[in-house]
Specification:
The chain is about 30% helix and about 25% strand. The chain is built from four helices and five strands, in the order E-H-E-H-E-H-E-E-H. Strand 2, helix 2 and strand 3 form a beta-alpha-beta unit. It is globular.
Length: about 120
């Protein structure tokens, strides 16, 4: 598993990339044309650790998607904006708007289906 890429100044990302967000960088990271899959998680959350490789693989193998990871302990403003009460919580954002979401660690096939169903079509 490769480490996540940190925030870059460009608002255009290649499909399948992973970015760790902060409260300061989140808005810029979701301002892209591709569907952004947002993974709200925490280091202490065991189901989050189980979901992490599954969601990374699903995004990496699905064109038209980018993954943005938000640690709820480090990004309280962003977590509050999306009313995160349970984690893991995964949102699909299109043009900054919520297009879909799920809460909890789902099986690999369900995560893949969620990502594919929300991917930006070329």
């Amino acid at each position: 598993m490769s480490p996540a890429r940190s925030f870059q100044s460009s608002a255009r990302f290649l499909n399948g990339q992973v970015h760790d967000a902060s409260d300061d960088t989140f808005q810029k990271l979701i301002s892209v044309k591709e569907t952004v899959i947002v993974d709200f998680h925490a280091n202490w959350c065991r189901p989050c650790h189980m979901l992490d490789p599954i969601i990374r693989d699903a995004v990496k193998s699905t064109s038209g998607t980018t993954l943005v990871r938000v640690d709820v302990d480090e990004c309280p403003k962003t977590a509050a904006k999306y009313s995160i009460a349970s984690i893991p919580a995964v949102f699909a954002l299109k043009n900054g708007d919520v297009a879909g979401k799920f809460v909890g660690a789902l099986p690999k096939n369900a995560v893949k289906e969620f990502v594919e169903s929300h991917a930006t079509k070329a």
